[in-house]
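FAQ: What does a multi-protein file look like?

Like this. Sequence, then tokens, then the next protein.
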Amino acid sequence: MRFYNHHIFKRSLVSLALGAVISAPAMAQTAAQNNDDEEIEKIMVTATKRSLAIEDVPFSINAQTQKDIERSGANSLEDVSRNVASVSIQNLGPGQSQISMRGVSAGQIVRDQPGVKEQVGVYLDESVISLSLFTPDLDLFDLSRVETLRGPQGTLFGSGSIGGTLRYITNQPELDEFDAKIEANLNTKTDGGHGNHLKGMVNVPLVDDTLAMRAVFYRTDYAGFIDALGEGGSLKEDVNDGDRMGGRIALKYTPTENITITPRIIMQDISVNGANRQEAFSIFANPYTTTRPAITLEERQQYLLLDEGFDDETLIADLTAEYSADIADFTFVYSYTDRDILVSRDASALSGSVSIDLGFPDEAVLLPSNLLDRTQVTQDTFELRAASNGEGDLQWVVGAFMSDTERTYEQTLPTPGYDAATDATLGAGTSAAVANGFAADSPYNATLPYDLQQTAIFGEINYAATEKLMVTLGSRWYDYEETRRFTTGGLFANGDDQTDSTTSDGFTSRAIAQYQVNDNVNVNAQVSQGFRLGGVNDPLNRSLCNDQDLDVFGNFQDYDDETLTNYEIGVKSSGRGWTANVSAFHSDIENLQVTLDAGSCSSRISFNVPEATTQGLEFELTRQVTQNLFVSFAGSFLNAEFGSTVLDSSGNVLGGVKDGNRLASVPESSYAISSTYEFDKPLFGSSATYLQGSYQFVGDRITQPSDQVEGAGSFQSNLAFGGATGEEVTNLDLELDKYSTMNVSAGFVYDEYEVLLYINNLFDENALLSFDRERGGRARLGYRVGEPRTVGVTFRMFFN
């Protein structure tokens, strides 16, 4: 719990941020001038839709290169984010992570909220791949870099980039050289299973200086580490194992020296057999039962009547065409995405809890119930833009963007034998009367087709007002229209059949000034805007709600667009063997879209909070300490809080949304220190030997705003079952503890191959990543947890 005063913390943070930014130029300049080592290789990025050195980009940006990714042994975006300031990834299960930047967070969004939009835009090169909750977990093999653009990027990247934008940048086909690489891995987890992967890349020139192909293929087998107890004392080990398989093929065609056409296709299939959920309570497994065996669940354990799973089939086809003319470079991008996502969850505790409320006998309460959530998405996007290519003081980019997204969300609850139990308890013909055309033995069914269309026109100019002062002005006009239909049926549903639509249009802009203090130091300041589209909540499952929850949550329907205005000052410095990037920012958020669990209704609702703020300091420092030792230090201090109080119909504070309370999912402090040491005399006959270590610290967080309310961690099921009265109290700490992880690795580089030995999570920290509650905690309680200690070896072979 936090005992300090919010306003004192706020003033201290602002003072610290401004002091750090003001002192950074002198500090960085002195360090740069006092070091005579070789300059660090420049990283080129395309965050402004043109190629620039990273230190010349006039806002806060990070780029993790292919070398960074390979040497750290990173296999996921969550791994990469360890060394990136102000980025937080909330793990909600396989393929269901939420990215937030700079504390801009609405709280936990889960699979049954398909209308909620993302707060960080994610791109694969030029193609939009963001999807709220289900942003693809792409393999990192053969990436050029991962760019993290912090702060609102509404001008060039549109809705969904209110907190920032993240871009996977792949290696492109090379016209003039053959290249190939193979990577193999074996790993094992403490008290878990064994994993492996095999990946390959080949680049082949097909026609001299005209046509080339680059192909990437991969397969990964994930080791499980969660054990599932079951009826009759059964035990299944490592139930959350799985695999990922996929690849991409790209062609580069240059019919003339001014034209480049790059068609590409990406396919990926993820299949995971369970969730990384560590349970603390289930109506079927708890220490309070007497007519059933009393069970206390341990670390990395859960209780299941049915196996769970997650499947994600992704197809992305895109084409980028570039034409360089005398006055400008023209770029056309078309992207098509087709995804089919199925989340299979053991909802037996949820269905059983409702059955107890309805007076069903014990044998009906124990019927295995499988909740199937299916999301099917097809999306077409087009972008056409032109960017100046001259050397003058005025540079510009203008463009137009269009997209058409069709998303169908379906939810069914197949529970064999449930109709018979319903008719026996509630009267013959009850199950047929509430089916509303859906299949038998499924007490809840829903179909929600969405159609989202958007159009945008954007532009940005950069003007060199003096030799040292660059001014950037940009704006984006957008127009959105979303339509959806909501149809439900079954005993747990309302029998809904309704159509809703929302529209939105407007402008989002930014202004940036960048001043070059000297050859080593740039100072930048900006005011920028971002936005996130609103939507419509699904009607509550009124038949499941108790009177109190129905009264509190029953009046929320529409929620408006969320807008953010960001004020920022930053310093970038790079010199001989040294870089320093520091930014201080303050963001005002209007109509923050907050998500809460609607308790017994087994629903979640989103609503607007009039005012919220995030402010903080972020820094990324690197230093070539000696010829052999390289050190980096990245971190952030954030203060993200509500600026308004929302009351329910009884005049009580709703779900912890109170002026001065914390926003969810945001650690107030986080940092990472990493270092690489290269030996003067390589070991074991290698041409180069290096040791790498990294330490990451993440401060405490909450999953939902309501988790900070006094008494929020005390749960009663109010369900008499198995000899338990339902009045027993399960006390949990909903403030997720701070945690730290240590990773170490050793690499041996030879002429044609490389060997990497590594240990991730060296001290086997059981990190609690998010809190999971089912039916407001009446059915099941648990935490999403991080991976245990992992020991592995990676082998890479190069052919060229």
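And here is the next protein:
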Amino acid sequence: MTRVGLGALLAPLLASLLALLAAWCCPAQAQAPAPAGVRPPNIAFHYGSKPPVDALQAFDIAVVEPDSGFDPRRAATPKTAWFAYVSVGEVEPSRPYLKDMPKAWLTGNNDAWGARVVDQAAPGWPAFYVDKVIAPLWERGYRGFFLDTLDSYQLVAKTDAERARQEAGMVAVIRAIKARYPDARLIFNRGFEILPQINQLAYAVAFESLYRGWDQGNKRYTEVSDADRAWLLGQARTIREQYRLPVISIDYCPPAERQCARDTAARIRAQDIIPYVADPGLQTVGIGSIEVMPRRVLVVQDREPGVSIDDSAGVRFVSMPLNYLGYRVDFAEASEPLPEIGPDRYAGVVVWMDGNVRAEPGRLFSWVQRNIGQGIPVAFLNDFGARIGGSLASSLQLEAVKGKIGKTAEIVSKDPMMGFEMPVAPDRTRAAPVQVGAGPGFRSLLRLRSGTLTYDAAAITPWGGYVMGPYAVRQSVNDQDRWVVQPLDFLRAALRLPSMPVPDVTTENGRRLLTIHVDGDGFASRAEIPGGGFSGEVLFREIWDHYRLPMTMSIIQGEVSSDGMYPKLTAQLEPIARKVFAQPYVEVASHTFSHPFDWGRTVPNGTHAQNPTEGDDDYHLAIPGYQMDLRREIGGSIDYINRTLAPANKPVSMLLWSGDCQAPAEAIKLADQAGVLNMNGGDTLITRSNPTWTAISPLGVNKGDGTFQVFAPNQNENIYTNLWHGPFYGFERVIETYELTDRPYRFKSVNIYYHNYSGTKAASLKALHKVYDYVLSQPLMPVHASDYVRKVIDWQGMAVAREVGGDSGGQPGAWIVRGDGNLRNVRWTGAGVPDVAASLNVTGTSPAPGGGVYVHLADGDSRIVMRDGAAQAPAVPQIVEASGFVRGWQRGVQDGAQHIRFEFSGYTKPFFRLAGAERCRVAIDGKAVQGVRERGTLRIDTTPVPDPNNAKQSVEITCAA
């Protein structure tokens, strides 16, 4: 809770009679509305130890506790200003500057908060405060400050003269801050008495508890009286009308009661005051002018020792559907202490168990009950983790039933979401003796009967839902796993997931993305075709320079360098690598030094097998004299390529994982420290002979310690050719994967992923030609692998929020989408359609496979307005398709005509199509272009560039009224 002094708490009570008399004899005038089209800033307050940057970036301003360790300089949040909480009237014992303060400056106590009151009139206090409090924070990157406890002096100042002396001292402190840092933005917490002297130095003024308060002494929530509210509204009116400053009210509701926060925020906003409603300690993400949608789901599982997170059911089965629905996945182990989570950040919990919890099952179910109690939906898949019945069934509001299991089982009733990829095959050995009730919120998905026992094997419940095995995924020893329940439908229903604009990495500007990346394996191999040569030479001649599509190329240092496996070939191989890396369409990557096959063995106590310092070295290439060294694998290989092979202006940008691609957190950290992105792994292998969503990987996996591994969108030719045993033309089947990950839903972008050894055989080269020719026949947008990876990283932290109530612009409930600007596509499948004309930083829309529309975002900060009804002809010109990057979008009206300006660039045959442009003229770099009218749109073709980030064309569109 933001602290205030005792005098400030009493001030409304002392003034209430005067306020009521004034309201009776002189009715208050309506508060002046905000100027048309101008929205006050969204402001959040979070004093937790780890500020959730992903959620808080939805706000224009986020006030954080600077001692939390948060560094605003490292936050990739260009649209969010980070303000530091600072106390002026008091000092807490934990503040490091307390030891430097003379004891004479400490004149009293605030017992409720355990803080010392500071004498504001003490000589030297203003200079000390700027030097010791503000200056260090300015150096750390803070450019705004929330000045708290401006009323605490009233705890010790008992006369008018003493109060005036304290107020003068506080004014001196604030003036000293602005004198040293004129650009600092200051938000005052109250300080009503000194505002007449320093209002011109304030950015905004806050107070607490317009409707809902917190009694710190008695640890309880309170309702604000009408008299106290009237007094505060009078202060707010003066601040708004006389000083022309934004006003903020910070109110308090229990963190589990999100509806209380919504309702209170709406009431505050109805008074034209910026709201923020959270818990008293400001430890959770509250609700202000916007409500941030929680985009995390916690998956709880119980892995056996030696099973990597990559091989777990949470990654193999659960993560991909959740990613498609827009949710980032975090993991926890049921046999370890479970994290405390809240409904402000987590949309739900999925528990996947393979039998009983191995350790302390009671801890798991107590934790589950706590989360259900605070309104977080929970879904069980495969197993409850303990024998269901008795008290456990009762705790989950399930009815324990009795009966004798027979020799067979049969279906009594089945919901349409059951029997998705394979029919329900009743299995009497997995009977769960429970049924759901007939009350609201209960819905049986699969009712079975065996003997005299009738039970619900799957259901939706008021707290979430469950699907018992084998009716979630029917698992097979030959990797022919199948979903029995439709996972998207079940997770939506069980976790009660609302409609929202879903960040989507598969598409940009209406076109599915295409990436190409090549692992270094086989660069030293010779081609088994007429003319021979090394594989890299053949691929360059036959594929890369023939198609000239943006691609990411890697080499294994241990195959190429003189300290590797083939030192006698180095003089021949290095020039080939230099030639390839020098091509303008090639992005440079490393595939490590020794190509580890089993990454779990590269670190002590890894998930796979023995300590790497013991035993054989068959988990990496057999390089003479080499012992595993992660730093050499990653940083060393990158340094070698930059120093020896890469052009000076094009260093290594990516690290492509090798072998099983199950990189440990330690390796990912080293890649991050080297300043490169990472990718590979995941195993997307869906084909017509294996047509299951269980063969579609998620976007990546959190490996702990803040690390994230990005998975490749598709798998490579090694898998399609039976581990390079043949048929060597097998990679052409990746086309099936492209098609099955596009319909009925677009789960993945298109990714041509193969190894250098594909250049060694005629059949594999023929397959590559077939794949390349296929992708060129499709409406795709070619980008580098690094472009894709940056989109995935942006997806991880992107904030989606909805405005609370309406605003002065008459656009209620608009959506706010914020990220770092790399991901510029969201998918909308809810009610209504996007109104491009009323939205901000939205360039257009296009149909999305599976229903709904893609919304094209101009940058990392968009406001999407929805309207009722079906799609109509565009009210303003908009981009319906583009094969390049649209940046710097600006739209306005001048002399009654629509004007649009943006920068455009693309790697391969870039063009854009405009709808609603019947009366428009287009100029590129100041020169008029005609374009082609097609399908009711205007198509403009432009010139490709090798680096769209640095070479852009200026587009101007002018449309007659």
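Q: Is there any per-entry metadata?
A: Some entries carry free-text notes. For the entry above: The two ends are 53 Å apart (CA to CA).
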